[in-house]
Amino acid sequence: MTYCDRAVRIAIPFVTVAALLAIGVRTPAMAASPAACDVSGIVARSLPAIVNITVVKVITGNGEEDGPGVDADTKAPVSNGTAASASTQSTGPHFETFVGSGSIINSAGIIITNKHVIKDAAVIKVTFHNRTEVPAQLIAAANLIDLAVLKVNVPEPLPTLSFGNSDALQVGQSVIAVGNPLGLGTSVSVGVVSARGRDLMRSPFDDYIQTDATINPGNSGGPLLDCAGRIVGIDTALLSNSTVLGSIGLGFALSSNIAQFAAERLVAPGNNYAPNWVGFHLQNMTARLAAVFGRPNMSGAIVTGVEAGSPAAAAGMQAGDVIAGADGQELANAGAIMRFVVTPG
């Protein structure tokens, strides 16, 4: 995809260990954190519940991971390790090591991370803050959400992080990203919430927080923390227009409300959850459409079609209707409406 005649790439930020030797890292200076956010105290309390993840994958002879490495629609590289490395020159299938991050959410050893971190993994290992390394097993991975749940077996209860309410985040609010950038080990960066409700993967569950907290390859799966030390996002992707994929201040984290919703159902699959479906198609409101429909602002969305025999049709909904909110809450756009539909209250 291109923006302003410049190639822009969405990168999934975890990286091969070999890439450390092949690239130079350029990191923009970040603004100092506000005094109201006790970053050092939050980090000290949180680090024992944050892990580094090492994954061994089988790489095919062309140097790609099993599965597509390029988005067929946009032709934009979407890679889990785009930096050059010596191992990519192999002419046959071989093993390659990748790194990511994760958060412990249950003292019994339940860890959440991004699905793309553990995709096609042959071996998964977790390293705790005290440098203890243990094997991990994949419990489950979501279909439409970039989230997976791992389990480690340890004799003692583990420290945990709790989820915060991502819907309560304000643009400009301080946040802290913790992860394993470029395999260097646990690292911390501080920034602010730049925007909310970003749609990256075109899924009805899309709800990404944009932040200028530095997110680089290797941060994938790590937590985005608020000033109370709660998980408000899962660091997932970055936008870069550089040939060397690295932070230019456009990082994205899966919102904690969606991550918690998915994790609870992955841990307890007996719920047999299937996304709700009502059978309508939506279009975001624009300034011109808001004027046409007499809307005071551009919140909500316009129904552009209703499927025959659907619950929406049974309720009398039709093309041209405007959905402004539900259950007493205003819904900002079509994405917010779809998230409301597919996630039960």
Topology:
Elements: E1 2-3, E2 6-7, E3 9-11, E4 15-16, H1 39-46, E5 50-59, E6 94-106, E7 110-113, H2 115-118, E8 121-127, E9 133-135, E10 137-141, E11 148-151, E12 174-179, E13 187-198, E14 208-211, E15 223-225, E16 231-240, E17 251-255, H3 256-267, E18 280-284, H4 287-292, E19 301-306, H5 311-314, E20 322-323, E21 325-326, E22 329-330, H6 334-342
Antiparallel strand pairs: 1-2, 3-16, 4-6, 5-6, 5-8, 6-7, 7-11, 8-9, 10-11, 12-13, 12-15, 13-14, 14-17, 15-16, 16-17, 18-19, 19-20, 21-22
Brief summary:
This protein has about 350 residues and is mostly beta strands. The chain is about 10% helix and about 30% strand.
Q: Helicity level, as a percent range?
A: 10-25%
- Total domain count: 2
The CATH architecture of the largest domain would be Beta Barrel
Record field, number of beta strands: 22
SSE-based structural type: mainly beta
Radius of gyration, rounded? 21 Å
What share of the residues does DSSP label as strand, in percent?
25-35%
